Amino acid sequence: RKEVEQDPGPFNVPEGATVAFNCTYSNSASQSFFWYRQDCRKEPKLLMSVYSSGNEDGRFTAQLNRASQYISLLIRDSKLSDSATYLCVVSSYNTDKLIFGTGTRLQVFP
Amino acid sequence: SAVISQKPSRDICQRGTSLTIQCQVDSQVTMMFWYRQQPGQSLTLIATANQGSEATYESGFVIDKFPISRPNLTFSTLTVSNMSPEDSSIYLCSVEVWGRITEAFFGQGTRLTVV
Q1: Nearest-5° Cα angle at B66, B109 to B12
Q2: Who's near B22: CB < 8 A, 6+ residues apart?
Q3: Which residues of A12-28 are buried (b: 16+ CB within 10 A; e: fewer)?
Q4: Which residue of A has its CA nearest to B30?
Q5: Is pLDDT at A19 greater than 70 in this prediction?
Q6: Phi, psi values for residue A17, rounded to 5°
Q7: Would you tell me how many other CB atoms lie within 10 Å of the CB of residue A70?
Q8: Are B99 and B39 in contact (CB under 8 A)?
Q9: How many A-B residue pairs are in contact by the CB < 8 A criterion?
Q10: Which of the four pLDDT bands, split at 50, 70 and 90, describes residue B61?
Q11: Does B107 touch chain A (CB under 8 A)?
Q12: pLDDT by residue (tens digit) across B70-99?
């Protein structure tokens, strides 16, 4: 079983739609959780951190469920510019290593 | 934040040869990380490079194949040795900046094709 699992997609949604991505992680000792965005042929960049209390940044909302070892990302009012691959990333308390999911590809169409 | 300059951005190499990838960071960092991203796959950590000591390699990666140098706190190189077509991939260096949150910054990546 992979340490971090995501639905690879692609998710094809029209502009204005709401889309949700899910991610599960296997290591219960994981302490830090992130969503990164990777545009085609570009390097990953941090989108947002994920906290148990939830984290909202404009149209983006991230949630963490420690009991289920589950992370989600919700994008409201999708824009064409949201088209990218979204990477779920997890790290443990006692290590600096980041574990990346395979990413979920989002394509927003007009 | 951190700005990383990685080069080359891409290369096409003959099998059996070696390629050295360089990363320069605009600030001093303790650790630098080298990742591989194969087509359609996630980022896989190759090794962690510490200044003044040998790099720490992840399972499945060995120093003879991926020698790493870390001469100072702002620079590192990764060499892909004795290349085969299976080494065709994107290679990325990364640093982590600790603050209110810990954020990873990446170089622009090196797209390697081995023919």
Answers
A1: 50
A2: B6, B7, B75, B76, B77
A3: ebeeeeebebebbbeee
A4: A96
A5: yes
A6: -75, 160
A7: 13
A8: no
A9: 42
A10: very high
A11: yes
A12: 999 999 999 999 999 999 999 999 998 877
